[in-house]
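Dock alpha-L-arabinofuranose; give full complex structure.
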Amino acid sequence: MKTTTINIDPAQVIDVVSPLLFGGFIEHLGRCVYEGVYDPDSGVADEDGFRTDVMAALAELQMTIMRYPGGNFASGYHWEDGVGPRDDRPTVRELAWQSIETNAFGTDEFIKLCRKMSWEPMLAVNLGTGSPEEARNWVEYCNSAPGTQYADQRVGNGSKDPYGVKYWCLGNEMDGPWQLGHVPADQYAIRAQQAAKMMKGCDPGIETIACGSSWPGMPTFPEWDREVLTYVGTLARYISLHRYVGNPNNDPLEYFATGSLVDKQMEVIDATCRHVQAVNGSRRRHFLCFDEWNVWYKDRKGNGEGKIAPALIEEDYNFEDALVVAQFLNSFIRHANIVKIANLAQVVNVIAPLKTRGDELLKQTTFHAFRLFSECKSGRSLRLALTGDTFDTDNGPVACLDASCIHAPEENRLTLFLINLSPTDDMNVTASLHGLNATSVAGDIMHSADLKALNTFENPDQVNSEEFANVSLTSDGLKTELPAASLVRLNLEIPS
Ligand code: AHR
C-alpha cells in the first residue's frame, strides 16, 4: 500500500486555468478531415457534410480551441487552394504525408465547423514553402472588413462578416529537418518576424505563436527557442511546445514518468522565455502554447502512398495511455501561470480519442480521460504540497501520486484530479483543506486491472469512467483509497 498526504491551501493560487488548455487539432492528415470531421457521403453527415456523430462526441469533450490545418501539412499548404467554388479547387500532391489533397475542405468549411462547435479557431500559416505575404493575405481573408482584395474574396465565397480569427501559429515545427522548408533558427526567426509584422499590420488584434522546439530531444533544444524569441520579440505572444510519448519498452513506470517530464519541458521553456524577456528588457512576457501533445508510438505509418485520405497513424489507445493523457492535463493545470493554450493532437482517426469505421464511431480510452478533466476545467489552479511515496526513474524520483487541483469558489466547487501511478499498489490518500469546509464529495474513476485494456468497435465500453464512492470527508479534509493505476476525479462542494 502506498500513501500520500496532500495539503491544499486555497490561498496558494497558481493562476486561473485557461479554458484554452482544452483544445484540439485537426490536420489534413490521413482520415482526420476526410472520413473524420467531414464526410458528405456518410449517412450521418449534416447538410454541410460534417459528421454529426463526431460532432456530438467532440461536444462531450467540451473543447475550446481548434488548431488547423497542420502540423507538417501546414508547411506545404497554400490556403487559396482551399477556398472558392469546389469544382475550381485544385487537387494537389501533398508532400508532408505523401497523399493527395482534394481541397474539398478549406478555410470556410473549418470556420463553419468551429462556429457549430463553439470552438475558437487557430490557424497555422505556411512558413515552410509559403511566404510572409501569403500569411498576411490569409489574415486579410479571414479578418478584414469588406472593401479590399482578400476580404472581398471571402465575401464572394459567402461570408460577409469577418471571421475574427485571433490565434495564428507562425509555421509548424520549423526546427525539424523533416519539415518542408526547414531552416536554422536565425533564418526562421526572420521569416516569423516578417510574417508576424505583416499579419499584425493587417489585424493588430491577432495573437501569434512562434514555433518552438519540436520536443526536448532536438539537438537545438532550447537554444532554438531562445534565438527565435529574442529576434521575434513581442511580435509573438506565445512559443509553441510539442510532445508525443509512448511505452515502447513496455515499462509502465518509465511511461508513467511522463507527467514529470512534461513539467520539466515547460519549466525549461518558461525559463527561456524569462531569460529572453530580461535580455530584451521587455515588459511583456511570452506564454507557452502546447499546441501538439499526445501518446503516439504504435502506428508510425506516415506515407500515404499517393492516396486520398489514407489511414495513417491511427493509434489504438489502451488504459495506460489514458492515464498518460491525464498526466499531461494535470501538468498543464499545475503550470496554469505559464501555459495558456494546449491542443490534443488530434481529434478523430489520426492519433485521436475518436475513431470512425464507415458510419460507426468509437470512443477510445483517452476520450474518457480528457472528458473527466474538461467537464471541470473552470477555476483557479491551487499549488499542492504532496508528501508520500516516490518511484525511481532515469530522471530521478517521481511522486507516485500525480495530482492537480482546481478551485472554483463561484461554483462552490473544488476538484482534485488524482492519478495513482503505481501499477501494483493501491494508495491511501489523505488531504487537508486548510479551512475550506466541504459539505459533500462525489467521485469518478477510470480503472482497469489490465493496463492494456482497450475499447474496440466490438467491445466499445471496456474502459470508461464510473462512479467512485471510496472517499469520505474528515474533520479537516478527506481520505480515500485509490486502486493501483487509476485516475480519480473528486468534486467537493464547498459552500461560500
Ligand atoms: O500530429 C502529427 C504530426 O506530428 C504533426 O503534423 C507534426 O507537427 C508533428 O510532428
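Observed: The pocket of alpha-L-arabinofuranose is lined by residues 27, 29, 70-72, 172-173, 292, 345-346 (CB under 6 Å).
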